[in-house]
């Protein structure tokens, strides 16, 4: 096990919580003023001397076609054009999962979705670059377009989207734990249903942007990019460009949101770098909104069959899950997302027998990838809706059924997922009490309804995506008399607020104030290693690394202070910028004085802390036994939440309005409660979009119909309900500062809670998203006819 | 997306503007608030060599009342219209319609004149050049065939402005000024019903909209309701304006004008539905008959994300709802 010991060796949970002075405070976000004033610098705002502009020629004609010929000669002849680029010039494949990496910077040989890039140009200004794109002539030979995953599998004999993927299947897997079939025969209540989720995009505000500067003299490449994963981007850039990683530096200016959409490298980044190397000039490539939709990497469309069986007392006996994921044209995060959907049926309830059969299929659509709550949102929708219906079959409240089955601290799931700590029951109780769910459910007038759903999410992953044992996060702390305290880490602030919570945690660990800590993030050269902002991992991982680094600094300071105060170093404590004896409080000295003394005597203080998550597959380090189980889904700890949505269905127009949401979340110790609240409210808006409004639409040829934020309908502030978010009292004693996650767990319950509320309102159980007014009216009509 | 290159002209007076319009006819566009035009330029729906700005024409701004007539300058912003005490008090339906346009960010820029001159919309037309280049140009974009109906030489793009229905229901008139002088005509005659050239000056005629006049005596009550996919930003799926003239509160209807946006190539007046109410008391059965008739009178085409039958259903529901509210009738 890699758990770090609790600070200063204390055990009592409440005692430790009281000790916090920096963690647990709603301090303002350190990056907020700049953003609010419009002063934050995004990649798109940057210019470098001699910089030119890159633009991408995309295939408008077909969603699937062989590239017969690309003629760039006219484009190259246009005055102001410095270089053109085609896929053949950079054929090395990239992809976040190395085993399935199959994307190229630009299409090689054929295009697999409408809007795929086939060539790029660098020119002195955007006008010239655009004019040059029109001069590039591409000849295509159209191929059959496969848009439906079932059709794609069926017609694979006739047409393969990727030559090396038989059946048009990227990967398929079965995960069987226990004896599901036998368990069902012994169940008193069994329910099976099909569900389908929709094709949605993250709709982050800042489109992808990349600015690359290659220095032909020293072969050094500097890339500024809007990314969540500077490290994975760095690694893949090295593969594609065939430049060693130590010759590449990735820097993140301000990032305007990611939500998973910037959770892998983007073609903009490769093209900027390739064009910069080709021209010897800095090149900037900024996507337009429609390019964000083409490159996509949003939520997988899932065709799910789920079956749940309960014994006569309502305890879950078995879950059977079949999932066909429509992944679009390339692999991306596909395998990972697929296995996450399989793993997500094991929590947040105790499931003694579980079977998942999953496959991720290629189609001629923009590729699906990682999106906030990756792999969880789809099975959660199915599971929480089925449990609601099962409760109805049993004649009990869904609350009763869910709390009865809810996992508790120390739970090991049948697939070996280990939950060190859970306050899920407290989440259910809090939300139910605060919303008056039990008094309202089933008792509201027709058209009004209330629905409950629970959820959970990982708080970091157990493995890197390529084989490696290195720590997932390292932080470097530097303390001196000039800069004060500086924390260096190559983590990505994408708007989630990690800069602020890292400052709070560092300040807590060092016994100073969060304003005293400078945080240097988002640079692979200036920062110590970090894996990236995904899987809700950073607060936990950085927290652990910070504690380790701070302990070393504190030890050095205590040793110096002990001489100054005349007492033993191990009897000293550091708090509120003071170092004092725990036993003789008179013996106190200013923290800064000790730093000065320390620097004067031994030089500047630095230390580095690491975090490696526990591995839960392979050989158990303690017992020596071989541990079975899926390697995806493991996490050092898990966050839980419950949401209760109240809806108003307009029976005449079919319009659904969510009027109130009561949420209760177990995010462990909240480092910054205000940030938690922001994450939760944002999550509700985010998932509500998928439930009621958003969907990417394609025509029968696979051409995107609504690749703009005018036609792609994200909810606006006018659609937002009243929100009552509650942080339940929680502290994971195995976690640094007791923390867990809140950025992705809170998106999990939203869709099923809305769907359950709609059922409560009008007695219709929707199984497909989004639930538009037209669908509601149709369903109401059908119901009327049936009655 | 970037704007295409153009030359920007800023005439100081109306008298200077008309000759410019004539001189650059066919190569220029008039710009008021620009909230619609700039999007269209970025999408390369138009690439005029000149933009003629109206921003200096102070005479075209403002609201006043004279002899039972409210006059609004076309350069008055929608924010200005919806917030004006005079409009809120005497023409609340108009204030409501102006307030329903777009979002709070647009209304301080968007003008009422630009709103009335709004080009028709279609899901195949209001798209980026890149989007459109994936298909043959449709009739409205200068091609042969309509992608919605597959018909040749016909465009069914939808008029989607929010303000015109109320103004037509209120029997407003407009003044157009051009090289030939000025003319005054009922607003409803401004709209052609031709999706390619939806109003009298939409074809680049050298004429300006300079005044909107609304008689106060034409009605006893007027209301506008808008149904959209989201409660901000979006154009109407359906917008319904009704103006009624009752002989006394809850009395007999002397005149009813029902005008609907989002359902045809112009603001569509449901005349037969209006007639169903004329001479009648405000009773549920007449209201129902009127709403059914209105739904039958419109012929929406699938030019946005919503199907025609849903639009018809919405019209039925919304017309009945507004008349009930105006007539003080319970459900
Ligand atoms: C995101 C978004 C949402 C929108 N939502 C809505 C909505 O919900 N409802 C709605 O009705 N509209 C909506 N619009 C369209 C537009 O913003 C409004 O209709 C606005 O009122 C147009 O006014 P403007 O002054 O900005 O017009 P401009 O863009 O300046 O002009 C529009 C057209 O009118 C012409 N024009 C303007 N003034 C005159 C004049 N005095 N004489 C002759 N021609 C003139 C211009 O040449 C141009 O062709 C939306 C636009 C956007 C971008
Ligand atoms: S209705 Fe037809 S012709 Fe008119 S804009 Fe739409 S597609 Fe083009």
Report what the structure shows.
The complex is a heterodimer of chains A (787) and B (331). With 787 residues, chain A is an alpha+beta fold. Chain A has a seven-stranded mixed β-sheet with strand order 3-5-1-12-9-10-11, with helices on both faces. In chain A, strands 7-15-14-13-8 form a five-stranded mixed β-sheet. In chain A, strands 18-28-29-30 form a four-stranded mixed β-sheet, sandwiched between helices. In chain A, helix 11 crosses helix 12 (398-405) and helix 18 packs across helix 19. With 331 residues, chain B is α+β, with helices and mostly antiparallel strands. Helix content of chain B is 28%, strand content 20%. Chain B has helices spanning 14-23, 37-42, 78-83, 85-90, 92-99, 112-116, 129-133, 164-169, 271-277, 284-297, 308-327, and strands spanning 7-9, 28-31, 50-53, 63-66, 69-72, 173-178, 181-186, 207-215, 221-227, 238-246, 253-261, 268-269. Chain B has a five-stranded antiparallel β-sheet with strand order 4-5-8-6-7, with no helix packed on it. In chain B, strands 9-10-11-12 form a four-stranded antiparallel β-sheet. In chain B, strand 2, helix 2 and strand 3 (50-53) form a beta-alpha-beta unit. Classes of the chains: A alpha+beta (787), B alpha+beta (331). The interface between A and B is medium-sized, with 30 and 27 residues. The complex binds flavin-adenine dinucleotide and iron/sulfur cluster. Flavin-adenine dinucleotide binds at residues 29-37, 39, 54, 74, 78, 101-102, 106, 109-111, 113-115, 117-118, 161-162, 201, 208-209, 233, 235 of chain B.
């Amino acid at each position: 096990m890699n758990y770090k010991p609790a600070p200063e060796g204390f055990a009592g949970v409440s005692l430790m919580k009281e000790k916090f002075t920096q963690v647990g405070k709603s301090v303002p976000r350190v990056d907020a003023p700049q953003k609010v004033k419009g002063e934050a610098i995004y990649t798109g705002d940057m210019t470098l001397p001699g910089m030119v502009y890159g633009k991408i020629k995309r295939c408008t004609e077909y969603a699937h076609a062989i590239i017969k010929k690309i003629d760039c000669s006219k484009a190259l002849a246009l005055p102001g054009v410095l270089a053109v680029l085609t896929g053949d010039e950079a054929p090395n494949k990239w992809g976040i999962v190395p085993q399935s990496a199959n994307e190229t910077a630009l299409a090689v040989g054929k295009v697999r979705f409408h809007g795929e890039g086939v060539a790029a140009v660098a020119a002195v200004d955007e006008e010239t670059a655009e004019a040059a794109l029109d001069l590039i002539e591409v000849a295509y030979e159209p191929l059959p377009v496969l848009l439906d995953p079932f059709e794609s599998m069926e017609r694979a004999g006739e047409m393969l989207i990727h030559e090396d993927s038989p059946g048009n299947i990227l990967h398929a897997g079965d995960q069987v734990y226990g004896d599901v079939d036998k368990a069902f025969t012994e169940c008193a209540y069994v329910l099976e249903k099909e569900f389908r989720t929709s094709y949605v995009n993250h709709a982050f505000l800042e489109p992808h942007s990349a600015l690359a500067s290659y220095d032909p003299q020293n072969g050094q490449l500097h890339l500024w990019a809007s990314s969540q994963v500077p490290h994975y981007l760095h690694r893949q850039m090295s593969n594609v460009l065939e430049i060693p990683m130590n010759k590449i530096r990735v820097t993140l200016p301000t990032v305007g949101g990611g939500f998973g959409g910037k959770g892998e490298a983007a073609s903009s980044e490769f093209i900027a770098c390739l064009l910069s190397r080709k021209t010897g000039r800095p090149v900037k490539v900024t996507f337009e909104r429609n390019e964000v939709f083409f490159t996509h990497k949003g939520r997988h469309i899932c065709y799910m069959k789920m079956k749940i069986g309960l014994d006569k007392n309502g305890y879950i006996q078995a879950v059977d899950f079949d999932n066909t994921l429509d992944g679009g044209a390339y692999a991306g995060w596909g395998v990972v997302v697929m296995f996450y959907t399989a793993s997500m049926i094991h929590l947040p309830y105790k499931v003694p027998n579980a079977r998942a059969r999953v496959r991720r299929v290629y189609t001629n659509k923009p590729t699906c990838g990682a999106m906030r709550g990756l792999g969880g949102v789809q099975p959660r929708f199915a599971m929480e809706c089925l449990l609601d219906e099962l409760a109805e079959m049993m004649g009990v409240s869904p609350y009763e059924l869910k709390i009865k089955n809810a996992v508790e601290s120390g739970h090991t799931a049948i697939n070996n997922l280990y939950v060190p700590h859970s306050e899920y029951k407290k989440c259910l109780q809090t939300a139910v009490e605060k919303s008056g769910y039990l008094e309202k459910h089933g008792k509201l007038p027709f058209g009004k309804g209330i629905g409950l759903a629970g959820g959970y999410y990982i708080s970091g992953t157990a493995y890197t995506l390529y084989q490696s044992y290195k720590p997932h996060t390292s932080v470097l702390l530097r303390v001196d008399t000039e800069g004060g305290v500086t924390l260096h880490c190559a983590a990505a602030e994408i708007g989630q607020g990690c800069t602020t919570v890292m400052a709070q945690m560092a300040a807590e660990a060092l016994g100073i104030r969060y304003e005293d800590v400078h945080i240097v993030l988002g640079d692979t050269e200036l920062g110590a290693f970090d894996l990236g902002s995904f899987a809700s991992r950073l607060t936990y991982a950085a927290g652990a690394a910070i504690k380790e680094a701070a302990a070393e600094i504190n030890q050095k300071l205590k040793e110096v202070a002990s001489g100054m105060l005349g007492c033993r170093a191990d009897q000293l404590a550091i708090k509120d910028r003071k170092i004092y004896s725990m036993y003789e409080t008179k013996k106190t000295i200013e923290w800064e004085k000790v730093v000065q003394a320390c620097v004067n005597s031994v030089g500047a203080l630095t230390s580095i802390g690491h975090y490696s998550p526990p591995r839960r597959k392979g050989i158990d380090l303690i017992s020596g036994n071989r541990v079975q189980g899926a390697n995806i889904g493991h996490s050092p700890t898990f966050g839980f939440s419950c949401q209760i949505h109240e809806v108003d269905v307009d029976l005449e127009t079919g319009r659904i309005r969510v009027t109130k949401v009561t949420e209760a979340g177990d995010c462990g110790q909240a480092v910054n409660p205000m940030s938690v609240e922001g994450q939760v409210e944002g999550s509700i808006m985010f998932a509500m979009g998928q439930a009621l409004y958003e969907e990417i639409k394609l025509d029968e040829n696979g051409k995107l119909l609504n690749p703009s934020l005018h036609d792609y309908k994200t909810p606006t502030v006018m659609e937002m309900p009243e929100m009552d978010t509650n942080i339940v009292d929680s502290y994971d004693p195995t976690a640094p500062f007791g923390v867990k996650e809140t950025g992705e767990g809170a998106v999990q319950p939203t869709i099923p809670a809305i769907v359950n509320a709609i059922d409560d309102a009008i007695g219709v159980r929707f199984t497909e998203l989004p639930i538009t007014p037209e669908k509601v009216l149709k369903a109401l009509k059908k119901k009327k006819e049936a009655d | 997306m970037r704007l295409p290159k153009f030359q920007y002209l800023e005439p100081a007076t109306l008298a200077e503007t008309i000759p410019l319009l004539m001189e650059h006819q066919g190569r220029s566009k008039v710009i008021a608030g620009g909230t619609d035009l700039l999007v269209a330029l970025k999408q390369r729906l138009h690439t005029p060599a000149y933009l003629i700005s109206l921003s200096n024409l102070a005479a075209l701004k403002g609201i006043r009342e004279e002899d039972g007539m409210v006059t609004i300058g076309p350069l008055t912003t929608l924010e200005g219209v919806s917030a004006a005490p005079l409009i809120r008090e005497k023409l609340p339906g108009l204030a409501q319609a102006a307030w329903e346009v777009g979002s709070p960010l647009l209304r301080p820029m968007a003008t009422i004149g630009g709103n009335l001159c709004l080009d028709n919309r279609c899901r195949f037309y209001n798209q980026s050049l890149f989007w459109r280049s994936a298909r043959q140009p449709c009739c409205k974009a200068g091609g042969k065939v309509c992608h919605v109906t597959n018909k040749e030489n016909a465009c069914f793009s939808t008029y989607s402005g929010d303000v015109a229905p109320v103004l037509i229901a209120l029997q407003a008139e407009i003044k157009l000024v051009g090289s030939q002088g000025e003319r005054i005509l009922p607003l409803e005659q401004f709209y052609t019903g031709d999706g390619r050239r939806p109003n009298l000056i939409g074809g680049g005629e050298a004429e300006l909209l300079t005044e909107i006049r609304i008689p106060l005596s034409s009605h006893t009550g007027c209301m506008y309701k808008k149904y959209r996919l989201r409660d901000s930003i979006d154009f109407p799926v359906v917008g319904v304006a009704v103006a009624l003239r009752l002989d006394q509160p809850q009395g007999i209807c002397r005149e009813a004008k029902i005008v609907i946006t989002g359902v045809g190539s112009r603001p569509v007046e449901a005349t037969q539905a209006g007639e169903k109410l004329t001479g009648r008391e405000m009773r549920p059965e007449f209201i129902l008959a009127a709403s059914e008739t209105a739904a039958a009178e419109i012929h929406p085409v699938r030019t946005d994300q919503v199907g025609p039958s849903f639009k018809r259903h919405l019209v039925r529901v919304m017309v009945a709802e507004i008349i009930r509210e105006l007539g003080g009738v319970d459900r």
